[in-house]
Design brief:
Blueprint lengths: L11 E6 L9 H16 L4 E7 L11 E6 L11 E8 L3 H5 L3 E4 L13 E5 H8 L8 E3 L7 E7 L14 E5 L8 E7 L1
Parallel strand pairs: 4-9, 6-8
Antiparallel strand pairs: 1-10, 2-10, 3-4, 3-7, 5-8, 6-9, 7-8
Length: 190
C-alpha cells in the first residue's frame, strides 16, 4: 500500500453483514445488534480490535453522497451546494483501518444516541468548507438547518476510490448515533 493511501489494510479482515429485517426493525435493535457483534468479535482470539462501518477504503460499493450546509456560512446564489461522501463508523474504526486523527477527538463511548450529534470530517472537507479556519466546534446540517451536527475532529485523508485518485470530502457519523442494519465488520488481527 502506498504511503499516501491514508490507511493501513495490513492484517485487517472485512465481512459484510445483513441481519434479518424481520427480526431487527428499529434503530434500537440495530444498535444492540451492532454492540453485540463488536463485543463478540473483539473477544475472538487473535483479534486486536473490531469495528463496524458502512464502507471501507477501496470497497467497490457506490458512495453515499450528500449535500450539506455549514452554519454561519451561507452560499452565494451562484455557488453549488457543498457535497460530501457520508460514512458511518464505530469508535474503533480509525484504529482498525489506520486512519490518523489530525486534530480534535475521535468518537467515544460518550457519543450516545440521545447525546448531542457529532461528526468527524477529513482534511479534504476541512479545506473545502472552512479553508484556513478550524472546523472543530463548527456545525453542519444535512437537512437545511433543521438538525445540526457538531464537528469534533478532523481525520486524515484516505484514497477511498483508488491509489491514483485524489481523496474526496468525507463526513463520518458515529455508529452509536446512526445505527446500521447492513454494514461491514472489520477486524484488526494479530
Amino acid at each position: 500500500v502506498p504511503q499516501h493511501a491514508g490507511f493501513d489494510p495490513r492484517q485487517v479482515l472485512t465481512m459484510r453483514f445483513t441481519p434479518s429485517p424481520d427480526r431487527y426493525t428499529s434503530n434500537d435493535q440495530a444498535r444492540v445488534f451492532g454492540e453485540q457483534v463488536l463485543q463478540r468479535a473483539g473477544a475472538v482470539p487473535g483479534v486486536q480490535a473490531a469495528a463496524i462501518a458502512l464502507t471501507f477504503p477501496l470497497n467497490d460499493g457506490q458512495p453515499f453522497v450528500q449535500s450539506f450546509s455549514v452554519e454561519g456560512r451561507p452560499l452565494a446564489p451562484d455557488q453549488p451546494p457543498l457535497q460530501t461522501e457520508l460514512r458511518i463508523a464505530s469508535e474503533n474504526y480509525f484504529d482498525v483501518v489506520g486512519v490518523p486523527l489530525m486534530r480534535g477527538r475521535r468518537f467515544s463511548v460518550d457519543d450516545r444516541p440521545d447525546g448531542p450529534p457529532v461528526a468527524l470530517v477529513n482534511q479534504a472537507l476541512a479545506r473545502t468548507a472552512w479553508a484556513a479556519d478550524d472546523p472543530i466546534g463548527a456545525r453542519i446540517s444535512f437537512d437545511n438547518g433543521q438538525n445540526w451536527i457538531t464537528v469534533v475532529g478532523v481525520v486524515g485523508d484516505v484514497r477511498q476510490h483508488g491509489f491514483d485518485r485524489e481523496p474526496v470530502a468525507e463526513v463520518y457519523l458515529p455508529l452509536s448515533q446512526s445505527p446500521l442494519l447492513t454494514g461491514n465488520l472489520l477486524l484488526k488481527t494479530s
